[in-house]
């Protein structure tokens, strides 16, 4: 039993169940996105603003640039742009990365899963 595993299970029961069910083939970046992000973020340039802004075309995009989405001041003033290192820092711990941001999210994924998800997400148009 890996310490902390149980805590993560509480945070993302579905991610743990999926991980257990597919131990031979770990969940793909897309599956991880569906589990951890889709409830708040759409893809593509859909004006479908959920709780969070749409995440299509994220690679090299400046932070807080989706039109008509009301970002926090913290994210707007961050000066960040989205590449794999910034995305991984953001997802691992949003509150440390950019204090006072409005993404109310605790990452339930392992570092490897987060990396796979991030690599997949940055390829989406
Ligand atoms: C509970 C809802 C929620 C979940 C779940 C969530 N986010 Fe977010 N996300 C937000 C909100 C709200 C913002 C806007 C934050 C702000 O304005 O400070 C945001 C902002 C972002 C941004 C910045 C976008 C931009 O235009 O600059 C990225 C990148 C991002 N989220 C990625 C993710 C990824 C990847 C996941 C899944 C691992 C995820 N988020 C899960 C709510 C969520």
Structural class: mainly alpha
CATH architectural type: Orthogonal Bundle
CATH third-tier fold name: Cytochrome Bc1 Complex, Chain D, domain 2
User: What is the gyration radius calculated from CA atoms?
Assistant: 15 Å
- Indicate the low-confidence ranges by residue numbers: none
Overall pLDDT level: 87
Q: What ions, cofactors and ligands are bound? A: heme C
CATH class: Mainly Alpha
Bulk shape = globular
Query: In the residues, how many domains can be counted?
Result: 1
Number of helices: 7
Order of helix and strand elements from N to C terminus:
HHHHHHH
Q: Roughly how much helix do the residues carry, as a percent range?
A: 40-55%
Tell me about the biggest sheet?
Answer: none
Strand fraction equals: under 5%
Q: How many angstroms separate the termini? A: 39 Å
CATH superfamily, called what? Cytochrome c-like domain
Number of strands: 0
Describe the protein.
By secondary structure, the protein is an all-alpha fold. It has a single domain (28-121), classed as Orthogonal Bundle (Cytochrome Bc1 Complex, Chain D, domain 2), CATH 1.10.760.10. It is 42% helix and 0% strand. It is built from 7 helices and no strands. Helix 1 (5-11) crosses helix 2, helix 3 crosses helix 7 (111-121) and helix 5 (84-92) packs across helix 7 (111-121). The chain starts with a helix and ends with a helix. The mean pLDDT is 87. Bound molecules: heme C. Heme C binds at residues 36-37, 39-41, 51-53, 55, 58, 63-66, 71-72, 74-75, 82, 87, 90-91, 101-105, 117, 121.
């Amino acid at each position: 039993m890996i310490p902390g595993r149980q805590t993560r299970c509480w945070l993302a029961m579905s991610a743990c169940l999926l991980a257990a069910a597919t131990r031979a083939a770990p969940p793909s970046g897309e599956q991880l996105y569906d589990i951890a992000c889709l409830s708040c973020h759409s893809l593509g340039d859909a004006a479908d603003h959920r709780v969070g802004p749409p995440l299509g075309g994220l690679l090299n995009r400046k932070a807080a640039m989706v039109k008509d989405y009301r970002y926090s001041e913290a994210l707007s003033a961050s000066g960040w742009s989205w590449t794999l290192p910034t995305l991984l820092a953001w997802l691992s711990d949003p509150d440390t990365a950019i204090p006072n941001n409005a993404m109310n999210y605790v990452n339930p994924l392992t570092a490897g899963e987060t990396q796979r998800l991030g690599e997949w997400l940055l390829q989406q148009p």
